[in-house]
Structures are given as C-alpha cells and as structure tokens.
User: What shape does this take?
Amino acid sequence: MFQVSAKSNISITGLDIMGKDAKKSDVWVYYQNGSYDKFDALDKGEWIQVFKGNVMLDPDELVNIELDKDVMIRAGGTASLYVVSKKRVLFTKSSSKEFSIYAHNTDFDVQVGLSTKKEFQKPDKLAEFAGRIVYET
Assistant: This one.
C-alpha cells in the first residue's frame, strides 16, 4: 500500500504493474481517501475496490490495468492505494522513511508505503510502488 498526494486535481484511471514472476494472477486494486495511517488499513472493509481481474504478470515489462472506477484526488488531497496479487506484484524495497516522497511530477507525489506478504495481513517492509500511475488532469 502506498499514497499519492495531488498537487493538481487528478483522476487515476489505471496502473502499470510488474509481477514478481511471469504468471497469470488474480489482481485487486483498492483505494481509500486520505492516508492509510488514519484508518485501519488491514481491515478490508475500510477500502474501496476499484479493480478485480486476472492479469498476466511480467517481471520484465509493465502490464497495464485499467481501473473499473477512477480514483479522483483533489489538489492538496491524498489517496491510499493497495495493489494485491496472489502471485505477488513487484515493489521496490525502500530504505527511506514511510510516507517520504520517492517519485513526483508536476501533478502529484508518490510516497513510500508498506508491502504485505498476504492480503490485509501485517505489513512486511517499507516499499515503493514499482509501476506507473496512469491519470488525467
């Protein structure tokens, strides 16, 4: 799980993700307005599902998934995203502090988050989303 803080009004329409291995996997994407440290992030009921599908993951190429529902973030706002896969989505281990900015552009910042080995289980380590955020302004 990780956070996106908007500098402009944005609408996240998809994510480009990488798998740990080249395998077909069920993938879910959840979001919640605000920082995941402000609610029980391990309670599935606190999240809104915006994608569910079977995806051919690839460790060498980004694979695009189009969200079933756009994630709208107003300028100055934050949204938490949680990408889950039975076959594991690739994240980059981070040595930075949780919530520090590791990627940015003129429209938003992406912050260091947490990885979990199993869906909605205790966080495993600090992680950076190793993908691309597809969005519109």
